[in-house]
Amino acid sequence: MDMALAPDPSPRWRRPLEAGFWLLLVTLNAVFNSVDAQLGHPQLPAWIPWTWEFSSALLVLALLPAVIAFERRWPIRLDDWPWRVPQHLAASVAFSLVHVGGMVGLRKLAYAMAGRHYDFGPWWLNFGYEYLKDVRSYFLFVAILALYRLWRLRRQGEAKLLAAPDDGPPVEPVERPVRFLVRKLGREFLVNASEIEWLQAAGNYVNLHVRGRDYPLRSTMAGIEARLDPARFLRVHRGYFVNLDHLAEIEPLDTGEARLLLRDGAAIPCSRRYRAALRERFGQPAVAE
Prior knowledge:
This protein is of the alpha+beta class. The chain has two domains: 14-156, no CATH class; 194-281, CATH 2.40.50.1020. The chain has helices at residues 14-40, 47-73, 81-113, 123-156, 221-225, 272-281; strands at 159-161, 179-184, 187-192, 198-202, 205-210, 213-218, 233-237, 240-243, 247-252, 258-262, 267-270. The protein has a five-stranded antiparallel beta sheet. A three-stranded antiparallel beta sheet has the order 1-2-3, with no helix packed on it. Strand 9 (247-252) and strand 10 form a beta hairpin. Helix 1 (14-40) packs antiparallel against helix 2 (47-73), helix 2 (47-73) packs across helix 4 (123-156) and helix 3 (81-113) crosses helix 4.
């Protein structure tokens, strides 16, 4: 059961782990509910509460691939949720109808095998009760899928350098690209390197800051340095690069370091190690500290 992301170079065990997660989640829920129902109805044979809960669990597991496929096709995002939520509410009704119908059928079969008769009761009254539970379960599944997608996007990185094409010459130097291919929440678009205001190290990522937004790129500072235009970008700290075109002010500090103020209002530290190179870039000789 793929949790609804586009193909990527994930380990082979990703899908079995995802399927195992859903199986464990649904099974544990059925076990806990069975125990609770058995304690609440001590006069009933033990197999009846377990039949109630596991008939429901089997139908949920059977329906999960359809829920995953629907969420993958129509994910709920911040920019389109007013249109997506009604779609998912309609899907939750279909989910509940199939779930309740299949669940009742399995219960009738189990009761018949035990020589008993199962009566679901007034259909629309009981279906309304079951739907209130199903709609919560449905949107819980959708929320889990959305959170999992965000986690994987963050883990994989949301931006990447342009790679060389399979055939033919590149349209621009890929060793020092003019543009970055940026992916934000599953959507890809191009950002000019000149629009990157500053870069910041963040663990195994380098955050590209563009017009108030951050785009994580899986790289090291040393790795990204070789891909940046040295005429425009300068390293000013162990964890920072700055685009000199966006630098507004250099504020010296008593410690020998400096604070760089950018046009967007951001403040970037400049360490003593890199301050001399910054002064020389602007035609000022390095001052002995």
